Amino acid sequence: MAVFSTVRTQEQTGYAETNARLEDLVRDVPGFLGMDFAQTPGGLGISVAYFSDADALAEWRTQAEHRAAQRRGRAEWYESYTLHIGKVERSHGFARAQVPPGPAAG
């Protein structure tokens, strides 16, 4: 798992296009399991990418277009960032079931 927290600069030219491209590329990495995102209006962003093992994460880390985006991010798009690499020991979730609307009372 890679947790990437960023504070973005005002200069965001090309960011959205590059981000979309990287989302496409990471899906092609064998062992990529998924990703979660959160963004505040103030520019703080958190991306969490899940990989099956360290080899899959290493493949993503060294992918050429990803490396180029990292350089551009440091030069233009990020005021600051942190990267944390970890291992998920356990995971579970909850989702409220959607109840279909019933007949109108009346």
From TrEMBL:
Location of the ABM domain: 6-72
An annotated Gene Ontology molecular function = monooxygenase activity
Task: Enumerate the Pfam families for this protein.
Answer: ABM
**Keyword Oxidoreductase in record:** yes
- Per the record, the domain of life is Bacteria
Q: Which InterPro entries match?
A: ABM_dom, Dimeric_a/b-barrel, Jasmonate_Hydroxylase-like
Is Oxidoreductase a UniProt keyword of this protein? yes
Q: Which UniProt keywords apply?
A: Monooxygenase, Oxidoreductase
- Protein name according to UniProt: Heme-degrading monooxygenase HmoA
